[in-house]
Amino acid sequence: MPRRVVRSEQIPAGDARQGDLDLTQVAAFVDEGDAHGNLIALLQRTQGEFGYVPEPAVDEIARLTGVPASRIYGIITFYAQFSTVPSGRHKILVCHGTACHVAGATRITEALEQELDVPDGASTGDMEFSLGSVACMGACSQAPVMRLDEETYGNLSADHTRKVIHSFVKELGLEAQYPGIAGGSTGGGGGGV
After folding, report:
1. Is the pLDDT of residue 111 over 50?
2. pTM
């Protein structure tokens, strides 16, 4: 199923996505290789530079390569690795596969939504965290499971999830941005996988 592409006119003024982008790096990426034969690599490098593939970068790639923007967007929406929406610096994914769902994945997601004040499928206003759900992480024996950047946590409860996110926010020195977390962490079981 195609994913939604956010166009700049759909982004409210003042949103973090509205900043001026320096597209000189995109031009350098185009100059480095065969853009026609390697659009996927070009888009990967662009996303690596910006954290997503912004509309102005797509327009610049189209202008420099002669490849229609519609073809570029076709690639972006076909491959799940690409996003046209900025995401937070730290990615939190909660497994909602059958085993995790039965074991309480919904409570894990709700705890994260409450602690970070962000709905599932969105990023915090400061772009520090993105919260998402996935169909399966392949760790069913440790359900429910979440991944915080590269670290996977299993056998979670809502309380342990809060403890993990409190600890991570403190480790990053972001307590001032998340005052509900600064008050301390709650207990719970489980641990890193």
Report:
1. yes
2. 0.67
* Per-residue CA distances from 80 to 18, 101, 133, 134, 191 (Å): 23, 23, 14, 12, 29
Tokens 């046209």, residue? 84
Contact of 144 with 103, CB cutoff 8 Å: yes
| Model confidence pLDDT, tens digit, residues 49-103 | 888 999 999 999 999 999 999 999 999 998 878 889 888 989 999 999 999 999 9
Domain boundary assignment for the chain: 8-78, 90-192
Give the HSE-up count for residue 24: Cα atoms under 13 Å, Cβ half-sphere. Answer: 1
Average pLDDT over residues 113-136: 93
β-pair partners for 148: 92, 151
Closest by Cα among 121, 129, 50 to 90 = 129
Q: Does the pLDDT of residue 115 top 50, yes or no?
A: yes
3-state secondary structure of 29: helix
What's the CATH number for 90-192? 3.40.30.10
Q: Where are the beta strands (DSSP E) in the chain?
A: 90-95, 122-123, 129-134, 146-148, 151-154, 191-192
The CA-to-CA distance between both ends of the chain, in Å, stands at 32
In this structure, what are the phi and psi dihedrals at residue 27, rounded to the nearest 5 degrees?
A: -60, -40
Long-range contacts of 29-35 (CB under 8 A, 24+ apart): 30/61, 30/64, 30/65, 35/61, 35/64, 35/65, 35/67
